[in-house]
Design a protein that fits this description.
alpha/beta; 12-stranded mixed β-sheet; 11 helices; 24% strand
């Protein structure tokens, strides 16, 4: 089944050119199938690149997925044409009365700031609160994961001695989790951040489960009960050249940045990076969609709140 996105969205042409099955809304309406409604809260300045990366992963599924895009109305985006936001995005206020099967909150380049210093923090808190009653399962990525852990569970973030930058090996702590169906014993994922979370903070919290970690990168995937909230501290959605682009950008700014780990063959930036995370990235999003959204959310999306209330009574 395809991903349903506007035909004019740049991601539509990009994915169609990669022979990935995408469908515009008019064609989807002719099918007697209820698509999964996924809300993408895109906090990245490079919104077009990020929406394309995540759309690619959501499209790699036998499930029909309808993607809705949201940006922070309280923040002025300077790296995306205003016409793109006006055409394809909505603000939270425009969707707050709706219900969604799933939600993805992206990372953001604001990790060195305290959460409360981020200009759109109050609006993002409203999104997090909305997800408790109007979204069945939420997937948080990188800074979005740190922000979600802090808001929902009071888990702080910590500054790292140096930027965690590269592609690192990971192992599942709870191999029986449906998120890891089809995973190898060791798998890779990119990270690019200056802050992290403390493993002990997760283990000591009664409502959180550490599902996966890395000796070098620390906790990678954390879940709340029932998979209602899943937090991924890395960037499994990254394209092959995303880390390269970030590395060149920082070098050109004269910043002190080390070469991304386990990325370039022979640690030679002139060589094309080796992609070692694509397969498990696709599996991660496929398993989330299947086991935590499709298999659990009610067919009548209007019943999501009632289903969540019933679960909360048994926590």
């Amino acid at each position: 089944m395809p991903l349903i996105i506007p035909q004019e969205l740049p991601a539509y042409q990009a994915l169609e050119g990669e022979n990935i099955f995408v469908m515009h809304r008019a064609r989807a309406m002719s099918q007697d199938i209820r698509p999964l409604r996924i809300l993408l809260v895109n906090l990245m300045p490079t919104k077009i690149a990020t929406e394309t990366q995540l759309a690619r992963l959501l499209a790699n599924s036998p499930l029909q997925v309808e993607l809705s895009l949201v940006h922070m109305g309280s923040h002025s985006s300077t790296h995306v044409p205003p016409s793109h936001l006006q055409t394809f995005y909505r603000t939270f206020d425009e969707v707050k009365s709706q219900r969604f099967d799933g939600m993805i909150v992206t990372g953001a380049p604001v990790e060195t700031l305290a959460f409360e210093q981020v200009d759109y923090w109050p609006e993002l808190c409203r999104v997090f609160e909305f997800s408790k009653t109007n979204v069945y399962s939420s997937l948080h990525v990188c800074w979005g994961a740190q922000a979600g852990l802090f808001y929902h569970y009071g888990i702080p973030k910590y500054s790292l001695d140096k930027k965690l930058f590269g592609v690192f090996p990971h192992t599942a702590v709870k191999k029986q989790s449906p998120l890891f169906r089809g995973f190898d014993d060791v798998f890779y994922a990119p990270h690019s951040r200056h802050t992290g979370i403390n493993r002990e903070d997760i283990l000591n919290h009664p409502k959180l489960f550490l599902l996966c970690e890395s000796d070098q990168a620390g906790p990678y995937i954390i879940s709340a009960k029932h998979g209602r909230q899943i937090f991924v501290t890395g960037h499994s959605e990254y394209d092959p050249l995303t880390l390269h682009t970030e590395y060149m950008r920082d070098l050109n700014k004269g910043l002190k940045i080390k070469m991304p780990v386990n990325y370039y063959p022979d640690d030679d930036p002139s060589k094309e990076p080796l992609v070692t995370w694509r397969g498990h990235s696709n599996l991660l999003f496929l398993n989330w969609l299947n086991y935590y959204v499709y298999q659990e959310t009610p067919y009548d999306i209007g019943e999501i709140r009632e289903t969540l209330d019933s679960q909360d009574k048994h926590l």
